[in-house]
């Protein structure tokens, strides 16, 4: 299952002209957040670079796949992770704190309704991007056709992420 | 000339499946470094994001175009800009401080030989990347077919860049 998802990820990137090197192909991060329903709630990640100053990743979402609601809190003196999502292909609906949109386009994963609490919608199509401030709840879902997102950010420290769903284990 | 270069840049990105939004299309940075020989020494830049924590750009180089030698010095207490070059298309030869390579593949721009002083060669093909440490001299040249580089970095502060060629005006 994880291997199938990794292969599918490589294929999607390939079809969109995004080239991975051999090491990256062998280290696709397939994340099901411990929920065991990857196709509904999950995310595929290629980490290009993560150092003590900045981070860059490619995120792949399958059709209607959702990355669950979370935030990147401040840690000690350091501000939480700040991330810019740039849509490269497909469509993404991003939700964050702020005034709720009247009607949202994403479908909240069935059985997890309690763990989606922010509904300010931003739609990202190829060439669109949005920067999520630190310490701000957010979640996102791909459209029918899936999505590729380039994530540019400050240093990634996944172990500090806070998920709304208490059953989620990220690291 | 500048407008032609901007159009050519958009076309190259388009042919490689990299989508720009309207605002980006209207703000391609065409940099000739004040040398007035863009095709030989120059660089085309799309700035996706530059905030006080990180920066992300797309760099486009035409056939055999060279970005002149420079460094990103430390500024006060802050370490100089650190940058990761990821080759997306074409071929790039990157040169930096360190042991000189026996024979380099790039052709040093005629008349500017004095201003190229570091010759440790790194060849980048699609999917390859390299991180340039802060405060380190470097320059780079595209192969015959040109190149697209995704640059992930700490904050960009071009006004502090130091070029080996004293006649260069970056900002
Ligand atoms: Zn996040
Ligand atoms: Zn540089």
From TrEMBL, chains A, B:
Q: Which GO terms describe its molecular function?
A: D-lyxose ketol-isomerase activity; metal ion binding
TM segment ranges: none
Source organism's superkingdom? Bacteria
Entry keyword set: Carbohydrate metabolism, Isomerase, Manganese, Metal-binding
Q: Which reaction does it catalyse?
A: D-lyxose = D-xylulose
Q: Which leading EC class covers this enzyme?
A: isomerase
List its EC numbers.
5.3.1.15
**Record carries keyword Manganese:** yes
InterPro entries, from UniProt?
A: D-lyxose_isomer, RmlC-like_jellyroll, RmlC_Cupin_sf
Which SUPFAM superfamilies does this UniProt record tie to the protein? RmlC-like cupins
Required cofactor names: Mn(2+)
Q: Which family does it belong to?
A: Belongs to the D-lyxose ketol-isomerase family.
Q: What is this protein called?
A: D-lyxose ketol-isomerase
Q: Identify the species of origin.
A: Pontibacillus marinus BH030004 = DSM 16465
Taxonomic placement: Bacteria, Bacillati, Bacillota, Bacilli, Bacillales
């Amino acid at each position: 299952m994880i291997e199938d998802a990794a292969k599918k990820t490589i294929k999607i990137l390939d079809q969109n002209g995004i080239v991975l090197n051999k090491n990256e192909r062998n280290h696709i991060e397939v994340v099901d957040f411990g929920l065991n329903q990857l196709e509904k709630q999950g995310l595929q990640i290629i980490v290009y670079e993560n150092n003590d100053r900045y981070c860059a990743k490619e995120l792949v979402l399958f059709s209607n796949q959702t990355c669950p609601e979370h935030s990147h809190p401040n840690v000690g003196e350091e501000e939480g992770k700040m991330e810019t999502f740039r849509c490269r292909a497909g469509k993404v609906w991003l939700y964050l704190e702020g005034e709720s949109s009247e009607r949202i386009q994403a479908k909240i994963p069935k059985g997890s309704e309690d763990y989606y609490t922010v509904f300010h919608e931003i739609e990202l199509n190829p060439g669109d991007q949005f920067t999520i401030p630190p310490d701000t709840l957010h979640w996102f879902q791909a459209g029918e056709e899936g999505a590729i997102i380039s994530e540019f950010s400050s240093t990634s420290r996944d172990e500090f992420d806070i998920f709304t769903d208490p059953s989620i284990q990220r690291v």
